[in-house]
Amino acid sequence: VYFRVIKEGWLEAGMEFIHLSRPEKSLTVSELFRLRSTEKNNVELLKKAAEAEALPERLRTKFQETLAGNG
Prior knowledge:
Strand content: under 5%
Radius of gyration: 15 Å
Order of helices and strands: HHH
């Protein structure tokens, strides 16, 4: 599981993490690694990554360009 840091702070052993939400259009860390390494032309993963709200815009744009044949 990967947690995105929204607000920096300190954690200590034994502190609890609470999962508040997950964006509707999201991508797992595993899917992102596959897309960046062994499945660079996987159309379904490219579409999913191009719409993943949690990814930086520049990375979503790269995936959109790859889908369009310009990447």
